[in-house]
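Example record

One chain of 243 residues, shown exactly as stored in the release files.
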Amino acid sequence: MDLLARLAAPAQDLLERVDRALLTGGAPAGHPIWPLLRRLGALPGELVIELAATTPESLRAAADPLRELARAYVDGLDLMPGAAGWRGDAAEAFGAQWRALAAHLADGADSMAGGLTGTASYVDDVAGWLAATRDAVAVALARCLGSTEAATLRALPAGALGSGVAGLAGGWLATGAPGAMAGPRSAILAAAGIGAHLLRAAADGLDHGEALHSRWAGRLDELPYRPTPAPAPPADTHLALPS
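Predicted structure tokens for this chain:
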């Protein structure tokens, strides 16, 4: 269990208060939270709770069957003898097609086995990115839990923050357009400060995720099979089998 998993439950009340205050009261015009809300498209509490529920272990587990299948492709070639001592034009044609298929299945990084291994490595990288993002958001959340802003929000009765319905109806989150602030100003500023701190950590993680995606771009494209062109049928179709 990582830090985010340990903090998610104790932080849930604060996260809900942050979201309710933002939905009901908005945030000051020009506050740093606005561009972060527009980019991430999620409230800070909502984002942290969803991130806490998404673990890298399930991704890492998905990579194991891919590597097993890659090994099966390699091992399977040993069970297929190819031309197996046949002679003649037909045997040569079959051998050429078999070599092309064998290369496609398990010869290097550009084979099916190589593609499966590469996909497994990509999954590992994504799992590592998710774990690092969780850690960064967890550190930001830990700082928020002990902040003055958190104390300000906890000191208010839950009803003072509203239900968030008015904010949703106004559509300010979808449009990113600041409206008039409603509710206790101290709570609104506290929620905006905490929200910006959490969303900034998540935005940094998104930057790293986009960089990871760029590094892998093109490396996991579909691998078409290109068979050896079939030769013209020989005049003599004699096939000599091994004695």
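Notes: The two ends are 64 Å apart (CA to CA).
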